[in-house]
Please model this.
Amino acid sequence: MSEQTIALVTGANKGIGYEIAAGLGALGWRVGVGARNDERREAAVEKLRAADVDAFGVPLDVTDDASVAAAAGLIEDRAGRLDALVNNAGGGTQQTPTTADVATVRAAVETNVIGVIRVTNAMLPLLRRSGAPRIVNVSSGLGSLTLQTTAGAETGPIDGAYTPTKTFLNAVTIQYAKELRDTNILINAACPGFCATDLTGFSGVRTPEQGAATAIRLATLPDDGPTGGFFNDAGELPW
Ligand code: NDP
Model:
């Protein structure tokens, strides 16, 4: 079994996920670049390798059971274990609740929530073989129920589609943390801030690299680090 620490980052072909992979790679980690599109995945792997990152491609569509099972098999063959899983893949559009297209809402839940559960559960046997397993769910401060119900807090436009998927993801993260409390697995949610990526039409004020920082920190937590928390660069966020 490899002594090098190994991470899987989902949706790592571009945006924040790519920068999480680059950042972990720069720390000497071996990084599985999870991405569903062959061309985009291989381009990202090549770019990371050119930057001296020990990267390998992991074909992965988080909405597909067979794809996720095959990804776990590939990591098993390559490394025999997983030290950090970063559930970054996500997407969707913001829609007013009263006019939301239900198929669009369902697709966002499938990727942003069910996808995280599917990938996490498939990777758990590999994570349990690590001496210091970490799971990071890339969420959003927009999903915070506390902030949504705090007068004056900035939580974006009224949205019954994308934003609630992050609230759902936060709730799922809390439940995993409770179940895994007596293990050495630390699981936390990260908010990258408003970043310039495809998701935001490049309107975000932060770079994807800045957006990656909290997820990298949570993927590399020491053994006495937090679990069941929600963090951004500035510290802990309310759920
Ligand atoms: P991008 O659109 O740049 O990247 C999204 C990534 O997710 C892509 O790699 C995309 O792959 C992948 N993805 C989407 N669906 C699937 C799927 N079914 N299987 C595998 N991969 C998939 O957006 P960001 O980098 O901005 O977003 C990354 C994460 O950060 C998301 O979870 C997002 O919700 C979150 N976030 C982003 C913020 C921002 O301001 N940008 C703010 C708060 C949270 P493909 O290229 O194939 O589409």
